[in-house]
């Protein structure tokens, strides 16, 4: 996942009235495109869920989906809420499609929390809970990984390739830092893998006792 902070809300969202207007109207009017572009910019070109860079250099209109973090089917009052919208990848098995209309109160919100207080990269390139997490935060990681399909086959293959490429390029700490300074898929996950802090005495997810 990719932590981010949204910029100012697009003015066009103010045109719509929750419970009266449908999101499809924003799509037809072009507001959804503006929302998508601003989210992609706020997210620095990364899918906030799986941390791939869907469009590369092709611009923000290809390979992207505007996801309602709290689904508009269950939370219609938030359909046009800027703080409920996230840009996710729209590849063959994209994150927003995998998530669908599901939601859980434990789902990690990359715009409100730092996902990497919770997530770590396992030896098989799978996403796992950081070992220092308390039981409650570990459960949140499990819910998030399952709901977003973060260990689906396509992502595992891409992560393994990224790890292999990085290890081949980074023959020294200096080169490693230079490689990680360049935008690349899974950059934060990879950086944390090679720059893990000493084990904290408190749960990094909630600040509680990690035992």
Query: How far from one another are the termini?
Result: 25 Å
- How many DSSP E strands? 4
Strand order of the largest sheet: 1-2
Shape: globular
State the low-pLDDT regions, or none. none
Quaternary structure of the protein: single chain
Structure description:
There is one protein chain. The protein is mainly alpha-helical. It has one domain (11-194). The chain contains seven helices and four strands. The strands form two sheets. The chain has a two-stranded antiparallel ribbon with strand order 1-2. It has a two-stranded antiparallel sheet with strand order 3-4. The chain is globular. The mean pLDDT is 86.
Summarize the SSE layout with pairings.
Elements: H1 23-29, H2 31-42, E1 64-68, E2 85-89, H3 95-99, E3 119-121, E4 127-129, H4 135-148, H5 153-169, H6 173-180, H7 187-194
Antiparallel strand pairs: 1-2, 3-4
Core attributes:
34% helix, two-stranded antiparallel sheet, mainly alpha, globular, 211 residues
Summarize the structure.
With 211 residues, the chain is mainly α. 34% of the residues lie in helices and 8% in strands. It has one domain.
